[in-house]
What does this fold into?
Amino acid sequence: MSELNILYFASLREALGCSGERLALPDGVRTVGALREHLAARGEGWAALGAGRNVRAALDQRMVGPDAPLAGGEEVAFFPPVTGG
Amino acid sequence: MSELNILYFASLREALGCSGERLALPDGVRTVGALREHLAARGEGWAALGAGRNVRAALDQRMVGPDAPLAGGEEVAFFPPVTGG
Amino acid sequence: MSVSVQREDFDAGAEIAALSAGNAGVGAVASFVGLVRDAGHDQRVEAMTLEHYPGMTERALAEIVVEAEGRWRLLGTRVIHRHGRLLPGERIVFVGVASAHRGDAFAACEFIMDYLKTRAPFWKREETPEGARWVDARESDDEAAARWNAN
Amino acid sequence: MSVSVQREDFDAGAEIAALSAGNAGVGAVASFVGLVRDAGHDQRVEAMTLEHYPGMTERALAEIVVEAEGRWRLLGTRVIHRHGRLLPGERIVFVGVASAHRGDAFAACEFIMDYLKTRAPFWKREETPEGARWVDARESDDEAAARWNAN
It folds into this structure.
């Protein structure tokens, strides 16, 4: 199975100290929301992805909700609410 | 008493064949609406100012309704609904 | 506030830049450019002549801008309306509004255009292949202006 | 439709002119320019850096424009959003919309800005005298975008 290409942006990127990573789809992870929970469970700075935080997600460069399905190989991005314009 | 300075614009000016005139306040005319009736009563082309026609008025360069009072000496303009912009 | 009624064309980019120049509190400039279309309701338009009521035009435009400034928090406004004979594609009118935030700028810009369309003394005469005709006022313009009273 | 995400500044006047050039069916061009303000919610802003998500930004902007084209009768649209470090007074974003009539142009221009503010992946980091901070998203932006669903 192809790896996920995970990206982090803005304040979330800074909180995690990481702009992205490649990751095999973890066991039991079938959705964007489950991936987020999996990452938040790493502890310490990764709590920035925790349930109470205002984090948005994009799957293959489209904004999605937590139920968006993952099969492996996708580009998944996590970021705070956008503030452009 | 000073004369009224009466102006006609656009299609109304063409219908009347006249862009304006100076006129002493006619007897019994106390409002813009009464002035319009007085002018329309001249007959022929002046019917363009008649009751059924869509004519707007300005008194001293401000849009007004037919009840706006006249004392003599004012600038009164009659014209069709505006179409600029 | 600045209002101009003129024969000459204008430079929308320069007007927009001037609305924020020297005031870094401006975060939003909404603007509108109206142009001569090559088609009226049913016929080809070869040219258009804008008649106006000198003196009252400037006054009416200024009053519309004052009313907008009373309704929204604005940091600058600019209205330019041309008169005379214009060809299809030529610019007729510019309205630009500067504000801290976009909501005020958009609302005021549209408000000024809607009021201008129903209150500023300009009249359009179109030249078509079948002759010249005065453009009829549109009911939709009255409706557009009336909706600002509901707020 | 044309969307650009770029470091460079833009020429609003040239963009507005391009939206009607060669199409005399265009009677209305509504446009918006967003600029860096020198004040945030409570502090002086000395500079701002716009981070974005390359690839998704262009896609998100294009989808917003397509949605606007489905809702209104448009004859041209242009969106430019800058990224990188910008100073107060500098231009950030341009949205221009051409249509036959002003109602469609105004509505689509404001719609694109409202959606851009909530859906396009840009993030602002302000430099203030007390250090740098990421700008918080505003609830009012969510509300502005949500009102287009009510129609």
About this structure: Residues 28 and 102 of chain C are 5 Å apart (CA to CA).
